[in-house]
């Protein structure tokens, strides 16, 4: 069999552990080679080292791509995003419940159409790769064809993606709602066709408590119990109007989280988007089960949902992941997500360090999503998903980065000033799948 092998020479950054919230990263957490070599072979990382050390081991004639002056990190991971909402980004003037009714639901209706779903899947993946995101946990629409389209497009590119069909059996327009049995039947068919195929995984996707009956939530929990290799994604405590509605709809639950607990939806592979309006006791219950909250700062600011309390979550031992939540979010870029997270943190007196931010986008998200065996680090044996960042992408960024005294400062400048121009290349499954200039 033919081996496909090459080396990238660049500054390399990866994490082996959580750097903590200090100004300096915790000892042993950062892997950094100012002049490094990343040797990739057949879709995996074969070796990583100082370039000078690696050069001794390289076979004669191997291709070496010279990216000196650029910084390679693991590919970014987006723990919560709706591909079907790409085209309603930047829809004016509503908070969550009106935004869903006025913009989101009408848009998602379009994904009953196979051609539309195919086309938007390709557009969405192009945009993700343009901003350096190589893995995401994705909401499709309630139409199975929207999931087939997304998984097929991801598989053609060899991407590691989690996704699922929205389950929603009430409080949405006809044409978007399913029913308990139909929703389960479609979900089981999709799991059979896609879960564990190549780099794809299925995430059970009840939209949120208000749009599912108790029977639908229970049926979803039953599937999760029979196959603990499945993921689950939903929304939790994003908006105060939503909270009031949930307490009316589920009078038998003490709080919003208990609605999900009672149906068995809270586990180590469960991601709850937002979790802004929680108390410490609820955070503790989520932590106990190993679940994670997806912090979606640009969405929380855009929809006026509130300021996520990141430190309260971490004090409770609760995993926090970083997410764009497009179309509520205003930017697909992981760098833009970190910038918004920093801004939310400032308003809460808990500014996000660049160390914590870049760890979060890479190994932190990978761990919380149970994907860290394969992605999230630059290390031998890991899948070759990474991003080549250009600190001189724009004249302004070049000026700012030229003044940086430390790697931490450069990372912070990238997270505040970076965007799609900062992403010179995105590699996934060992192949360059996006190049800024070409
Ligand atoms: N809650 C229920 N559905 C949605 C959605 O599509 N986006 C966001 N941000 N919150 C939700
Ligand atoms: Zn969402």
Automatic annotation (TrEMBL):
Top-rank lineage group of the source organism: Bacteria
Alphabetic keyword roster: Hydrolase, Metal-binding, Zinc
UniProt KW RNA-binding keyword: no
Enzyme class: hydrolase
Signal peptide: none
SUPFAM superfamilies attached to this UniProt entry: Composite domain of metallo-dependent hydrolases, Metallo-dependent hydrolases
The keyword Hydrolase appears for this protein: yes
The EC number(s) this enzyme carries: 3.5.4.3
Needed cofactors: Zn(2+)
Binding note for cofactor: Binds 1 zinc ion per subunit.
InterPro entries: Amidohydro-rel (IPR006680), Guanine_deaminase (IPR014311), Metal-dep_hydrolase_composite (IPR011059), Metal_Hydrolase (IPR032466), Metallo-dep_hydrolases (IPR051607)
Amidohydrolase-related domain mapped to chain residues: 72-431
GO molecular function: guanine deaminase activity
Alphabetized Pfam families for the sequence: Amidohydro_1
Pathway: Purine metabolism; guanine degradation; xanthine from guanine: step 1/1
Catalytic reaction(s) noted: guanine + H2O + H(+) = xanthine + NH4(+)
PANTHER family on file: GUANINE DEAMINASE
Protein family membership: Belongs to the metallo-dependent hydrolases superfamily. ATZ/TRZ family.
Protein task: Catalyzes the hydrolytic deamination of guanine, producing xanthine and ammonia.
Name this protein carries in UniProt: Guanine deaminase
Organism: Halomonas tibetensis
């Amino acid at each position: 069999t033919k081996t496909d092998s090459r080396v990238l020479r660049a500054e390399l950054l990866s994490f082996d552990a959580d750097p903590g919230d200090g100004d300096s990263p915790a000892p042993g957490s950062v892997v950094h080679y100012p002049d490094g070599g990343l040797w990739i072979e057949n879709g995996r990382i074969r070796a990583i080292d100082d370039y000078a050390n690696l050069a001794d081991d390289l076979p004669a004639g191997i291709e070496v791509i010279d990216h000196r002056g650029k910084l390679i990190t693991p590919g970014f991971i987006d723990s919560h995003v709706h591909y079907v909402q790409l085209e309603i980004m930047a829809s004016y003037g509503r908070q969550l419940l009106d935004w869903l009714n006025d913009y989101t639901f009408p848009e998602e209706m379009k994904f009953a159409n196979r051609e539309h779903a195919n086309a938007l899947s390709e557009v969405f993946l192009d945009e993700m790769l343009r901003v350096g995101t190589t893995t995401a946990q994705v909401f499709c629409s309630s139409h199975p064809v929207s999931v087939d389209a997304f998984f097929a497009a991801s598989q053609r590119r060899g991407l590691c993606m989690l996704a699922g069909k929205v389950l929603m059996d009430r409080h949405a327009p006809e044409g978007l709602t399913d029913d308990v049995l139909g929703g389960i039947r479609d979900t089981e068919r999709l799991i059979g066709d896609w879960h564990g195929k190549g780099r794809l995984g299925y995430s059970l996707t009840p939209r949120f408590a208000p749009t599912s009956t108790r029977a639908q939530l229970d049926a979803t929990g039953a599937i999760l119990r029979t196959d603990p290799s499945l993921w689950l994604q939903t929304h939790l405590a994003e908006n105060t109007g939503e909270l009031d509605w949930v307490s009316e709809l589920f009078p038998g639950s003490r709080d919003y989280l208990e609605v999900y607990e009672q149906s068995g939806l809270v586990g180590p592979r469960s991601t709850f988007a937002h979790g802004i309006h929680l108390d410490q006791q609820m955070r503790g219950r989520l932590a106990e089960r190993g679940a994670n909250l997806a912090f979606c700062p640009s969405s929380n600011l855009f929809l006026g949902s509130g300021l996520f309390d990141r430190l309260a979550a971490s004090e409770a031992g609760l995993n926090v992941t970083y997410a764009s939540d497009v179309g509520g979010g205003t930017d697909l870029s992981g760098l833009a997500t970190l910038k918004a997270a920093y801004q939310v943190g400032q308003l809460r007196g808990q500014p996000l360090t660049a160390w914590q931010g870049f760890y979060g986008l890479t190994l932190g998200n990978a761990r919380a999503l149970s994907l860290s065996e394969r992605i999230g680090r630059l290390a031998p044996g890991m899948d070759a998903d990474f991003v080549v960042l250009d600190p001189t992408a724009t004249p302004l960024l070049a000026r700012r980065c030229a003044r940086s005294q430390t790697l931490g400062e450069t990372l912070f400048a990238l997270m505040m000033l970076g965007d799609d121009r900062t992403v010179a290349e995105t590699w996934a499954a060992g192949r360059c799948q996006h190049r800024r200039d070409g």
